[in-house]
Amino acid sequence: xxxxxxxxxxxxxxxxxxxxxxxxxxxxxxxxxxxxxxxxxxxxxxxxxxxxxxxxxxxxxxxxxxxxxxxxxxxxxxxxxxxxxxxxxxxxxxxxxxxxxxxxxxxxxxxxxxxxxxxxxxxxxxxxxxxxxxxxxxxxxxxxxxxxxxxxxxxxxxxxxxxxxxxxxxxxxxxxxxxxxxxxxxxxxxxxxxxxxxxxxxxxxxxxxxxxxxxxxxxxxxxxxxxxxxxxxxxxxxxxxxxxxxxxxxxxxx
Length: 254
Prior knowledge:
Layout: E1 3-12, E2 15-24, E3 38-44, H1 52-62, E4 67-71, H2 88-100, H3 103-119, E5 123-132, H4 134-142, E6 148-154, E7 182-188, H5 196-209, E8 213-218, H6 234-252
C-alpha cells in the first residue's frame, strides 16, 4: 500500500511541536477504513526523536491501515526537524533532555497531538498509542488519557523508578488505575534499563490496579525493535509488531 507522509507544526506555548504524519494513500474501504478514514496511533520515539528506524516503524503501522502521528518530543529544546544521532553525543543529549523536560509538558504535548489526530480528516477518531524506550513510558502516560483505547509499550524506561522528567517524580505507575483502554507491555529480559525487579514491580502494580493488559518478556536486549545496530532482533520485532497490530485491530476498528 502506498503511503502519504508530511507533518503539521502544532502551536504550543513558546513555539511549535512538529508532528510527523503517515497514512495510507488509498481511499475507499482499503484496510478496513471507513470512506478513506483510519484509526489513529500516536507513536512515541526513543530519546533520539524521529530517526530513520522510527520512520520505518511509523510506515509499518500506517501500511496496516492507520493514521500515524510521531511528535518531536524535545521541541522546546531543539529546532524542528532535529534528529539526534545513535552515538555518545546524541545519547548524552537525549538523556539530558529526558530528565530536563517537565512531565506536565509531555502531557500537554500528548493532549495536543491526540486532539489533532482525532480531528484529522483521515481519522475515524479512534485513538491508540505506541512507544519504544522513552516512548514506551510516554505511551503509558498517553494511556492515562480517557479517549485512548489501546496502547503498546515496548521496554518502557523509568517507569519502575519513577524518574522521568524534571524532579524525577513522574508518578506514572501510581496512576495505573486511570487506564481505561487495553495495554500491551513488552520487555527484553536482557534489558539493563528495566531489571527483573523493575519488571516485577510494574506487573504487580498493573495487576493491583485492575488494568486490562497483555504482558510479554522476550529473550532480547534493550532496543530489540530498532532495525539498526547490533541489538536488533528481526524475529522478536515481528512478534512485537504482530501483538501490537492485533491489539489495535481489535480495539480501534469496528
